[in-house]
Amino acid sequence: MGIVNEKLEAFGLKKVLGYLDSNPEENVPKLIGWLRKLDSDGFFNNTYDMIEEFMKDPDNNWNRLIKSMYTEIDDGVRKKLFENFLVNSAIIGSQKKNKCEEKYNCNIPWAILMDPTSACNLHCTGCWAADYGNKLNMSFETLDSIIEQGKKLGTYMYIYSGGEPLVRKDDIIRLCEKHNDCEFLAFTNGTLIDEKFADEMLRVKNFVPAISIEGFEEETDFRRGKGTYRKVIEAMDLLRTKRLPFGASLCYTSKNTENIGSEEYIDFLIEHGCKFAWFFTYMPVGVDAVPELMATPQQRKFMYDQIRKFRGTKPLFTMDFWNDGEYVNGCIAGGRCYLHINANGDVEPCAFIHYADSNIKEKTLLEALQSPLFMQYRKNQPFNNNMLQPCPLLDNPGRLTDMVQKSGAVSTDMQHPEDVEALSKKCEDAAHQWEPVAEELWNASEGRERSEEKIRKELERKAKIAEKAAKKVKVKAG
User: Which of 113, 137, 118 is CA-nearest to residue 129?
Assistant: First the structure.
């Protein structure tokens, strides 16, 4: 079935927004029923089934999380979040994205991560941002063009990183205003969130911060600088007072994993108003990287176990960028689900992979997605049959090196270009040590068969798309 008719979409939105006013016990099931009808291709049927089931239990942690969106979040912000995220991005965007993927025979991202600036007001230990220099910026016009191009392909989710993206507060708010049908998120250190900016967030309604915090005060200030923790807590308290949704961005390292993965810390995030937490493991990217900060295999397994345990008990939506590979069929980079555009305009397959063969100032977004590097990603994903070893850099030695060399991509580090073989070598020991742990976890995973079936179907779909594209080329040549 084609993309949802605009008139039906407008009618449906008016109806669904009425379901978001009050009484979640009664109206959330109605909302799910409406979304099922709109999602004619059934992309999210399993999710709908899960939501309907836990809404029957008032003590269920996911039920409590949904109810908190009614009791703790501004009504207008909640409606806009649901409209942009559930309807525009997840359903309408997914339908358009799949159509374009078939038409152009390339990956089309669900989300685009982009750096408005390389500038930052902090100097965190082991962070690569400073390697780019602090004078790189994408203009408002460039950022606006990326979003315009993305929406035509079905992308309605935009995430800012940096540097510190809130150095560009005014432009970020302007983009939220202009693209009211998109949802915007930012990975931010939180120290630049003040009352004026919070009021702007409340006005535009489609911007959500994910605040970086490394643990409690000692761990956060160790990596981010003395006094940072207190400023982050002040920002969280301000956002909560304003009834604005926000989450946490958490990088677990060899120094803080046990704290970040503790029940005490998860309860701390919930207590301070976080609705989601996004977990990343430390990557030794850049010449100033500190390989000693990489989490051990035992620590990575600890996070795997803890997050899954808390998903059944805590009203907090959690995502683990590496350990959740089984839910997303491995690596999501290279435009398969997302890509990264740095402050110089280089179109990179991932925020942690600083190599490119395209620049957004010289190519369109679609041309970048069809470039040799991104097509290498499309051809090689998944990089491992074990979805707990998803990454071509951290988990599969040689895979990134091979793709970079075959595509002719170059390092995007402006100050200290990093040889891809040297970067990969820094991850080899971690990959070999993680492999037996990942194998044991994968063999015991309840989702293994389901994930393998998804991968099989996705590979079949990609093969059919490639076959159609080859036939078109043959016809044109003939």
Answer: 118
List Cα–Cα distances, 366 to 41, 104, 113, 407, 427, in angstroms: 24, 8, 15, 17, 31
Count helices and strands (H / E) in the chain.
Answer: 20, 11
Phi, psi of 338 (to 5 degrees): -155, 165
Please state, in angstroms and rounded to a whole number, the distance separating the CA atoms of residues 386 and 365: 31
Token duo for residue 109 = 């991202």
Instruction: Encode pLDDT of 141-176 as tens digits.
Output: 999 999 999 999 999 999 999 889 999 999 999 999
- The alpha carbon of 169 is separated from its chain's Cα centroid by a whole number of angstroms, namely 21
Q: What gap in Å lies between CA 303 and CA 280, rounded to an integer?
A: 10
Strand partners, 332: none
C-alpha closest to that of 252 among 221, 293, 285: 293
pLDDT in tens, 96-144: 999 999 999 999 999 999 999 988 766 666 555 555 556 789 999 999 9
Does the pTM of the predicted model rise above 0.85? yes
Distance between CA 335 and CA 325 in Å, rounded?
16
444-467 pLDDT, tens digit each: 887 677 677 777 777 787 788 877
Q: What torsion, rounded to 10 degrees, do the Cα atoms 269, 275, 281, 287 define? A: -90
Query: Do 248 and 269 touch, CB atoms closer than 8 A?
Result: yes
How many angstroms separate the CA atoms of 147 and 180, rounded? 11
The CA distance from 87 to 84, in Å, is: 6
Q: How far apart are CA 369 and CA 381, in angstroms?
A: 15
Give the integer Cα–Cα distance in Å for 33 and 35. 5
- Token pair, residue 37, equals 């009808």
Structural contact between residues 360 and 345, judged by C-beta atoms closer than 8 angstroms? yes
**List of residues 6+ apart from 130 with CB closer than 8 A:** 120, 123, 288
The length of the chain is 478
Q: Report the run of H or E that residue 472 belongs to, with start and end.
A: helix 448-477
Q: Which of 248, 238, 245 is nearest to 193 (CA)?
A: 238
